[in-house]
């Protein structure tokens, strides 16, 4: 019988891992709220406000993040990002902010993408970057920004980066949501499995071209 | 001893059913949050943001609601409503919206009521309806609206409907809270058990009249 | 021509009196914002966040309200209220709070009413008061409260007061919106001009009874 | 000199047309706020909370919208939309909601797009529609929905529609922001003027293909 | 094995005590949410929105607080405060408000402090009090307030009180957060263990003076 | 007469400079809102959401800030800050974020201070810094952070910095309010003019010591 109990308990705690995903981003309701490690790791796409451990158990290290000292892993387009939110930096939980380090190889790009739940402030740590965003009226605001300059990408608008300098470039971006989300246009549109006829009509591409795009952005297809 | 444990566990999980009712309506903190069926059904008057299942387990059907194809059950005043919130349509959870189908028989009415936590947009699917609301200065804004027209009822203000056409009428209402609440004036005031002397003085009615009202709106009394 | 200008200017400034009614209640965006007297008095039903004067011109008196030292004017039901919001106490503007002094003669009542945009905390300064509210499930929560006790009325729910003591009673109520609004059920429903047939059906009253109610709550009819 | 004044005044009022664009979507601060027509028409891309006229001047018609009775103008992809926000329906101002009628010819599509500031609830008035959205993890949630069914598109996520029935289809969509915004992926990405080299790299297309896309989505180029 | 289970359960429930600390202060998502006593007492510094019991189990007494009838315990500076939040008054949970009774002996003071998450409205129940606050520009707004007067302290700004009358004084303060927080400047700065060299430089005090201050505000050092 | 008009207009526009200070920090209601330069410069202590120019007139440069390339002017404590908000970087207006560059000479400090309306994320651009904050329970969380590390200071809590390295240090801080405010404890408490007797009692200092402090933090006294 106690094994039945154990099973119940396990089911219960397993389900809690993906849950207790409540609440919203506005003002914190307490000084801080360090997620309780008991609840395990939460998948990125479903990150949220997490249950906290007792404030007595919080330590200074809960509020310091040291994982941005070097670049992350580079993609095919010469981009390496380290997005930092409460799953990797517990101290952020409930405080309404998150951040990211983005590195671009020479000629590397960060493809058009947007954050559904946050404005982003991009501070150029080093390098020369063509950066910009598009507004709801399809107008592009883009130019080259350099070390020490800051560009703002308004909440929910498509934006992009390209290293146009002769050295690697690094951006420190901060966002006003603890889980801003990220929709990368090429893979969200061509790599997610949207009906091909719809894509054909939407982009005026041939079925063959759509097929090529789908294979590029979702190799598993 | 393990039976004691079981009891503890049961108490614990039973209580969780009515709880984990936290948070508020503003911006979602994740793409979506499908409530975990493990937590059972939640009573309407206490509906709230619910713990979610893992996002991997979400399916397309979690985001589609098919229960509005025909009218609900009619009341004495010729009204049938199907209010839709996360208890019946899990995909709404954390997204800050809910909706309702309201049908009115010929001459039927939706009595004066208000939603404590939402503005409502009423779209006339069919019929001719006298619709309106009252503002804080006791001014009524009311007129007949017809198929294809839309009326807005500002957050928290008393509003009402009456079918003044020769055919049944249908409204699709949407509200900007996942749990807008609903206080129906006749039953909230006369059917809830407020002190009779207070009601007498408030409405200038006789004790007998108040008694009649109470029996009408709360037959159990 | 300059007189045309003057007219234009006057129209412009007159319209500004009722306008610049923007924004919402959440966090202030500055330390404070004392409304600019240039914009004149704003009607109560349309009160809102007002344009401010330069912070240099703010004085200590802008943040102190002295008009609650004695009771206001009593109504027929033995109630006197002094609602305090930014129109009479400029320092409240943008800060998300307002308050009210309510006095009740012996046997006096505050009829069922609700605030569309705020929770209320009622502190009994003196007296014995039967106080309560109704929830969305038509359940009443009411009892007698006495000097020094505090009752909370959740946002948007119908509530009421009756002096059941042998002396006058006084309440200090505070609300978490700078313009909570107030819908008094008797006058909002019977004194606002809602269609009589609808009211008949909603409350199960005769046309004659509705007529009596209308005359009571809107003598102008 | 008075002509100088006139010029000043004109500059001033002209500038006010594009301004007084303040505030945010949360709770209203008053019952309602009908925009003052004196401030003229506001451009769609910059719509916002507008200054109001005095509440005494509000009329019932300010709260009813009658412009959805028939479909709007169709685009090349067989789509006609009538987005309704405070610029065309003043009563919505400050109330945190807006809505849209979308008609699709047989085989018509609404290309992938998203609303940066709102969740959308889509109610099928008539027809059979393949509808769906993509989450932050590039997973698509799509299926056919029919008359009377409702699908929810979470805030800020890419979504799309295609009429897969044998008759025209109509959707009534409601959104929880008075100005949700709309980024249509094809034109925002290929028709806005983003650097061609960046687009080449992002989508793996040839310079020629990018050129074709740009001409399609921005014929002026 | 069942003892292992018990341990697990205990760990689990112990951790829940300090957790389920989620969400934020804005609009409630349900009529009310009475914290479930099962979750035990929560430490003040980490107070937050708590899981609720089923609404059926709520009673009128959950919404009335009777603990303010007499003053609390006095400190060395002649101050006694009874801060009331959901840990002691469950009915406040999720409703966005809390309150406090503060008593001052003759010549007593409430030292400079601030509430990180709320505006405060201070109503003088009895006495004469020198009260004020400092804005972001280091300007002080202070004067004597008397019985029946109300002063507002804007969110997050340093404020203070001193009884300048000849009798004890009492304040009823209400705040627009259920957990406003409180940083008392003397003990937060000198009693918390900030590096002494930093304090020396910040305040221009000698190491000896800093030592005296530290001993005064943190006797354990 | 037209001169009278001119005077009226001037009064009007002068007053607008310090006003139109409305609204709150939450979600933007439009893509962006570049403040209209017509409204002149706004004083820092009263910064707020500003009226915008027409979106057609927005340029890319409105969204890029170039003034952080070198340190600002140093104070006596070896600190130089460049706070950046909509008054100096118009593109931030309505987007809910602002930022700051802080430079510290060797041994320099940023005295205990707090931001009433924002959480801060501090990214170390160069140097070694002792950094920390105090929570509502007077517990200090402090340690040395180095180049590439990030520390978070929760909303409204007292925090501080000291350069403990052998080279100058630079911080890039970002905050989730467009006008976070800043109360510097030493000058807010001792340099603002709070009653001396109150300060004596609050800090346990002699009248002479208070006098010394006042002269240091407010030389004008």
UniProtKB/TrEMBL annotation, chains A, B, C, D, E, F:
Signal peptide annotation: 1-23
Disulfide topology: 33-52
Keywords, sorted A to Z: Apoplast, Disulfide bond, Glycoprotein, Manganese, Metal-binding, Secreted, Signal
Broad class of the protein's primary localization: secreted
Binding site for Mn(2+): 113, 115, 120, 159
Pfam families: Cupin_1 (PF00190)
Domain (Cupin type-1) ranges: 66-211
GO CC annotations, alphabetized: apoplast; plasmodesma
Domain of life, per lineage: Eukaryota
Entries under InterPro entries matching the protein: Cupin_1, Germin, Germin_Mn-BS, RmlC-like_jellyroll, RmlC_Cupin_sf
Stated name of the protein: Germin-like protein
Species the sequence originates in: Rubroshorea leprosula
Lineage: Eukaryota, Viridiplantae, Streptophyta, Embryophyta, Tracheophyta
